[in-house]
Amino acid sequence: MNIIRRIYCRAFQAAFHVAIPFLPYHYPEIHNSLDDIPGILKKHGINTVLFVTDKGLVKAGLAKMVEDVLTNAGINFHTYSDTVPNPTITNVESVRQLYVDTHAQAFIALGGGSAMDCAKAAAARIARPNKTIPQMRGILKVHHKLPPLIAIPTTAGTGSETTVAAIVTDSSKQYKYMVSDFCLIPPYAIHDYRLTVGLPQHITATTGMDALTHAVEAYIGGSTTRETRRAAEEATNLIHGYLYRAYMDGNDAEARQKMLRASYCAGIAFSKSYVGYVHAVAHSLGGKYGTPHGLANSVLLPKVLRFYGEAAYKRLAKLARRSGVVKQGFSDEQTANMFIDWIQEMNDRMSIPHFIPEVREADIPEMAAHADAEGNPLYPVPVLMNKRELKNLYRLVVA
Ligand SMILES: NC(=O)c1ccc[n+]([C@@H]2O[C@H](COP(=O)([O-])OP(=O)(O)OC[C@H]3O[C@@H](n4cnc5c(N)ncnc54)[C@H](O)[C@@H]3O)[C@@H](O)[C@H]2O)c1
Ligand SMILES: [Fe+2]
User: Fold this and answer.
1) Contact criterion met (CB below 8 Å) for 127 and 144
2) Among the atoms of ligand 1, which is closest to the Cα of residue 169?
């Protein structure tokens, strides 16, 4: 990246960093049981809701648990269960239309990041009926109060129940991008680890590594605060202690509970301190090939961290020591490399592949342009890269 653009990126990032204490970040009100839903709705005088989920959650019997709570409390609801992984603008527009047609007054989203983001983006469309999703791409373009939303994560995960972002895919352009604004932070979330016990093993693995990617990318960026560093350290510590346990035994209640907490902490960390190029590249792969988000991040994370090299050693080493992943007594370089080794070992133990076979050389320039548009100037990454340099990151995952 040339010096002028480099200065511009770093100045942009510094301005956002300085502004953090003055920006309207907030947290969802966390509840621990689906049984709290009627009380939340009653408080707002709501008696009709739109329930957004996906087919996998219907099949797993989890959607019915929410529907039963609503039915027993006499709350009118309509269910939208066609959300796809890497949710599309078509999904969002269908949800928006159903919300309007059924005179709903609030959203309930049950699922992983896909269902939650679909509902968040649809809520943005309700708040801004004259602005399309493409017009809200990027940061701070929604800027209106959204209808109430109760986010119920069933993966651990994206942390979407506490983040500023909704990630959507324009399938006509094979382009996946983020809509990000403070008003997208859900006002309510339900953390019930029992909803995650049936998560298939490979989804437990990749969504857990997505949470780790949030924590690591936030931590090694240049816009952390004491709060986001602590949140990232806690998330990393919990993932180190519990992800493999949750992977090995889905019914391990303690491990599931801790992973839900890890996902939430990592969400807090990156909501204020951003992610980095792992995510920018992963989103472009999701848009182009439909690569699951957690899988793309898991494969990319150790490779991109190695690619950053020396520029990331100090912060990676600090995270590694403070989270307890690597013991004291080694240099920053050694500690950072031991931390990256641990990430790769976690991938290997959980049968996460080393490569993403669908990546085609001919597609790389277009995807790198998307990653450039997402990452620059926003992400305070250790090493700035322009679209030509970003192409190298795709080549790391070509078999
Ligand atoms: N908004 C944010 O801050 C944010 C952060 C990271 C990722 N994301 C986005 O979130 C999406 C990915 O979300 P995800 O990784 O949670 O996966 P997902 O929501 O796409 O779910 C993956 C699959 O798991 C199934 N599933 C989920 N929970 C289950 C359960 N408890 N039991 C059985 N099956 C279950 C779903 O039906 C689905 O088929 C991507 O689009 C990604 O870009 C958003
Ligand atoms: Fe992510």
Assistant:
1) yes
2) 41
The amino acid sitting at 300 is L
Same domain, 208 and 151: no
Residues by chain with Cβ below 5 Å of ion ligand 2: 210
**Bridge partners of residue 300, in order along the sequence:** none
- Is residue 231 a part of any domain in this protein? yes
Which residue, by CA, sits nearest to atom 17 of ligand 1?
A: 112
pLDDT score for 252: 98
Q: What is the pLDDT of residues 250-272, one digit of tens each?
A: 999 999 999 999 999 999 999 99
Say yes or no to pLDDT of 399 above 90: no
157 C-beta closer than 6 A to ligand 1: yes
Q: Which residue among 158, 216, 275 has the greatest number of ligand 1 atoms within 8 angstroms of its CB, and so is best to mutate?
A: 158
- Radius of gyration over every alpha carbon of the chain, rounded to an integer in angstroms: 20
Which of 196, 227, 251 terminates a domain? The answer is 196
Is the CB–ligand 1 distance for residue 56 below 6 Å?
yes
Domain that holds residue 254: 3-21+200-395
pLDDT tens-digit map of 116-125: 999 999 999 9
Q: Are residues 239 and 357 in the same domain?
A: yes
Q: What is the pLDDT of residues 159-182, one digit of tens each?
A: 999 999 999 999 999 999 999 999
Q: 């990032």: which residue's tokens?
A: 13
The ligand with the least distance to the CA atom of 160 is 1
Residue 318 Cα, ligand 1 centroid: separation in angstroms?
A: 30
